[in-house]
Each structure stands twice: as structure tokens, then as C-alpha cells.
Design goal:
Elements (H helix, E strand, L loop, with lengths): L5 E3 L5 H15 L6 H8 L4 H10 L1 E7 L2 E9 L2 E7 L8 H15 L4 E6 L4 H5 L4 E2 L9 E6 L3
Antiparallel strand pairs: 1-2, 2-3, 3-4, 5-7, 6-7
Helix pairs in contact: 1-2, 1-3
Amino acid sequence: MATAPHRLATLDDAAVLFEVRRRSILELAPPVMPVAAAEAWAEQVTLARMEQKLRDLEIWIAEVEGVVAGWGGIRGDCLEALYTAPEYAGQGVGAALLGRLEGLMRDREFEAVHAEASPNALAFYLRRGYRVTGPLTPVGAWPITRQFPG
């Protein structure tokens, strides 16, 4: 796939980002996690909460031919979210978006990026140089970190 252009999200993107997140969880998390667990995770964010995320985080969108293919959010040295629309999974959209977000953090002179990986995404991050830094959290996520080269 050609590199998807990235742009900063606005409040007008809330509904589409909410839907990409929901579909990504429901369609991509199983079979790594039980369907009921994926449904509970997907329901944690309402449209109003997505709007709040747009106010609280720096959110970048990957677009393919004008369609939102994925999005990710950062705050300081933390990757707070990374979702790919199911129809674009495995096509490099998430990897390119992660690269963009890591680049922003590196440019801001952070030494590392910290995140929490869902069980279905852990292998994705490990392939990109992240390491697990603690036990599974009570919400079922793995704390992970990637050090930037000095």
C-alpha cells in the first residue's frame, strides 16, 4: 500500500474516529481475546469521551483516498491510542502511523515512548522494538516501552 498521508484530527473527526476504534476492537481483537472482553473494551469510549480525547490528546489520522484508515494519539512521551480500520489492517497503515507518532516524540527530545498494549497488539509492538516493562495490568494491557537511539 502507498503511504497514507497523515493529518491532525479535529473535533469534526470525533464520530469517524469513534467508529474506527469500535470496529477495530470488535473485528481485530478476537480471537486473541474473548468476544465479550472485546465488546466491554469497545464500550469504554462513548462519542462524548472520544470528543474529550480530541481535546486532551494530540491525535493524528492516516487517510487512504480520503478515508480514515487509522488514527493514533499521544500525550507527552505516551502513546495513548493506535487503531487501524479493519479493512486496512496488515497493510502498513498502523506501522506508518506509529512511525509518525514516534518521530514527533523523538523530535521533542523524549528518550522513550511508553504505552500499554492490548493482547492482540502486543506482537505488533514487540516487532517494532518495544519491550514489556511490567506485568499485565488489571485492565488486561501490557505496559511497554521503546527507547529511542541515543
